[in-house]
């Protein structure tokens, strides 16, 4: 019986590895924050993670597209974030934990829409009310 239970426990642990890997945040440096201001190119309001793509004009006039990852639509909706809040062309300032490897991307912490000063925090959808 003990051998069977050990085998079942091992099978469950192995089956859980993809789930743990999927939700890893190791690609982001949570000890640092980056803040950029730009124009929304696209809001990919999708599962399992949404992405807010922001075109940022650099000092030399070139444009870099930054990607900021957030939770899926159901969590964003609970946090008060709708797809329509970030239509293309919306000017925002966004803060996130940058990618460890230096690519122009991060984990979305807060975003402020410049037209009205409204702040959006994707993690508010995890709060129990």
3D structure, described in words:
The chain is α+β, with helices and mostly antiparallel strands and 129 residues long. It has a single domain, classed as OB fold (Dihydrolipoamide Acetyltransferase, E2P) (Beta Barrel), CATH 2.40.50.140. 21% of the residues lie in helices and 36% in strands. The protein has 2 helices and 6 strands. Strands 1-2-3-5-4 form a 5-stranded mixed β-barrel.
What's the SSE pattern?
HEEEHEEE
The order of strands across the largest sheet is 1-2-3-5-4
Question: What is the fold-level CATH name, i.e. the topology?
Answer: OB fold (Dihydrolipoamide Acetyltransferase, E2P)
Low-confidence stretches: 5-21
Give the class from helix and strand content and strand pairing.
alpha+beta
What shape does the CA trace take? globular
Question: Do you know the CATH architecture?
Answer: Beta Barrel
Number of domains: 1
What's the CATH class, please? Mainly Beta
Compute the average pLDDT: 86
Could you tell me the strand content as a percent range? Answer: 35-45%
Largest sheet: 5 strands, mixed, barrel
Q: Can you say what the CATH homologous superfamily is?
A: Nucleic acid-binding proteins
Short characterization:
The chain is α+β, with helices and mostly antiparallel strands and 129 residues long. Helix content is 21%, strand content 36%. The protein has a single domain, classed as OB fold (Dihydrolipoamide Acetyltransferase, E2P) (Beta Barrel), CATH 2.40.50.
């Amino acid at each position: 019986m003990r051998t069977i239970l050990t085998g079942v426990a091992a099978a469950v642990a192995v089956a859980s590895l993809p789930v743990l890997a999927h939700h890893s945040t190791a690609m982001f440096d949570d000890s640092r924050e980056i803040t950029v201001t730009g124009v929304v190119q696209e809001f990919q309001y999708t599962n399992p993670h949404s992405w807010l793509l922001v075109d940022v004009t650099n000092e030399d006039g070139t444009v870099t597209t930054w990607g900021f990852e957030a939770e899926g639509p159901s969590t964003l909706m609970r946090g008060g974030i709708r797809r329509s809040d970030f239509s293309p062309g919306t000017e925002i300032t966004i803060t996130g934990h940058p990618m460890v490897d230096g690519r122009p991307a991060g984990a979305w912490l807060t975003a402020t829409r410049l037209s009205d000063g409204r702040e959006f925090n994707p993690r508010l959808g995890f709060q129990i009310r």
